[in-house]
Amino acid sequence: MTTAIVDFTTYDKSVPEALARVGANPVLAGRDRILIKPNLVTDTPFPVTTSPICCEAIIDVVRACNPDAEIIIAEGTGDPSCDTMAVFETLGYTRLAARKQIRLADLNTETLKKMKNPACRRLPEFWMPEIALSCFIISVPVLKVHTLAKVTGTLKNMMGFAPPSHYSGGGTWNKAALHSRLQEAISDLNRYRQPDLSLVDASVGMADSHLGGRQCDPPVGKLIAGLDPVAVDRAAAGLLGLDWQDIGHLKKPLS
């Protein structure tokens, strides 16, 4: 099974169930360096951003499968008023990292590699943090309506890898240069590097906006896991009552 939707009870019960149902455990067992990418666009706590409790449950699954793997939690916040390391501290990730003995990485300041793909019309070249190319990536967004992208899922979550040194132009946000023709930008970015494994926290859900507003009522009460990020995001859109065929970056498989 490439995608699973499970009922949410607690992270320590539902996260292992979701990952096991998509066959993630043997995949994780064979990886030496694993990067967990939460959605920490700003310093507002869950459900606007990914809960550290969710990431802790993923760490426990990884450690059970592969005790010797290096685990990194990495993000590049989109809010220019928030330093990524300060966001880690505010939201409890610094304490989590100390407790679990893992490293935190700021994707906004990591060493970059220039990549080119002429098939990408929106982003024929992209400056990618080198850490993305040397790690197995687990994308862990929270389920949210997005005012520009229509849905925040695992593909949209990869925008955290866009460095502000190259992509802050054209607006006030750290990734503002990508907001023009955003659907194409999301698709192209993920053609350079897509997540290897995804876990969408749909335990609550944001019904109006990715930055605040109304929470889903009743809470969605699900987790979505999968190895195919497009399939995961199509399922996520459905949980918000959206038709994935109306969302540009979900219309076609990544190639």
Write the layout of secondary structure elements.
Layout: E1 3-7, H1 11-21, H2 24-29, E2 33-38, H3 52-65, E3 70-75, H4 84-91, H5 93-100, E4 103-106, E5 112-116, E6 125-129, H6 131-134, E7 136-140, E8 142-146, E9 150-152, H7 154-157, H8 164-167, H9 182-192, E10 197-206, E11 222-226, H10 229-239
Parallel strand pairs: 2-3, 2-7, 3-4, 7-10, 8-10
Antiparallel strand pairs: 1-11, 5-6, 8-9, 10-11
Domain DUF362: 34-237
InterPro entries: DUF362 (IPR007160)
Pfam families: DUF362 (PF04015)
What report would you give on this structure?
The chain is α/β, with parallel strands linked by helices and 255 residues long. The chain has a single domain, classed as 3-Layer(aba) Sandwich (Rossmann fold). The protein is built from 10 helices and 11 strands. It has helices at residues 11-21, 24-29, 52-65, 84-91, 93-100, 131-134, 154-157, 164-167, 182-192, 229-239; strands at 3-7, 33-38, 70-75, 103-106, 112-116, 125-129, 136-140, 142-146, 150-152, 197-206, 222-226. The strands form 2 sheets. Strands 1, 2, 3, 4, 7, 8, 9, 10 and 11 form a 9-stranded mixed beta sheet that branches. It has a two-stranded antiparallel sheet with strand order 5-6. β2 (33-38), α3 and β3 (70-75) form a beta-alpha-beta unit. It is globular. The two termini are 20 Å apart.
